[in-house]
């Protein structure tokens, strides 16, 4: 009799614990450029999150299970195709079926935002993006001396970011937003101009409705970011276009000078003054007016998350389903 009672108690306890564990919303992460879904850094991040939120299920998005190919897919491929693949991948993971919170590192951030806008099934509740390029980049990221993949992609993109080939094959070209060639950008950009609803008209209202369905959007910018130009892209900021005369010049062969872009402090249009926000093209304003957008700052250079991840992951990840 005693042992039976004990058994009931033990199984009850087990059930209660399992229920509590099960009710933590899972987390999906998407790595950044040059990284892979299973790199030591990504593995460590996952284990830190699991220490902070015991029992949480974490899924690391991959384009290819082979780590080398997954890394390559950060440079080469078509973002829209990768997004279709990821949407299918997330829909196929049983643990994610009720929805999840998500963290996008660098370019993974704008890709997760696109996932939300284009379908969001299963849905994301809280989305945190670290140093992402929501308003694109106006310079290509500098590559380290030994990063051949990066160097080749950079050289190819410099040849013509808005060529059809680049827009089909070079990931960074697909979120390159040149303030001196905005008209060309809206015509040619196969990814960013679309998810930013800058291809007019008409707006894709689904994008706005889907993004506005997020519980929270947390945008983290790295204060000393010199990889993302401009760094304020993480907060939906972008470089102001140059004066009239320049912006009408269509110079596809515009010489590309790093010194030039780094020497000058370009004026930045902040999110609140962007038409994408003021005219609510993608639901940002709706979110903000609901108090659902948080602008966070991380000290340090691009993707140095040591100084800020704990606060953000502590606050926005590990919630339970209602
Ligand atoms: C808007 O986006 C949704 C989701 O990606 C898509 O199904 C739909 O066809 C788009 N509508 C237009 C008018 O492009």
Describe this structure in words.
By secondary structure, this protein is an alpha/beta fold. The chain has helices spanning 2-22, 40-52, 67-72, 79-91, 107-118, 148-158, 164-169, 182-188, 192-195, 205-212, 244-248, 258-263, 275-278, 284-289, 309-316; strands at residues 27-30, 58-60, 100-105, 124-130, 216-222, 238-239, 268-269, 293-298. It has a six-stranded parallel β-sheet with strand order 2-1-3-4-5-8, with helices on both faces. It has a two-stranded antiparallel ribbon with strand order 6-7. It is globular. Residues 244-263 have low confidence and may be disordered. 2-acetamido-2-deoxy-beta-D-glucopyranose is lined by residues 118-119, 204, 206.
**Main β-sheet, spatial strand arrangement:** 2-1-3-4-5-8
Tally of helical runs: 15
What shape does the CA trace take? globular
Low-confidence parts lasting 5 or more residues at pLDDT below 50? 244-263
Bound molecules: 2-acetamido-2-deoxy-beta-D-glucopyranose
Radius of gyration: 21 Å
Strand content: 5-15%
Tell me about the biggest sheet? 6 strands, parallel
- Chain oligomer state: single chain
Secondary structure category: alpha/beta
Mean pLDDT: 88
Helix-strand sequence: HEHEHHEHEHHHHHEEHHEHHEH
| Helical percentage | 40-55%
Query: End-to-end span in angstroms?
Result: 38 Å
User: How many extended strands?
Assistant: 8
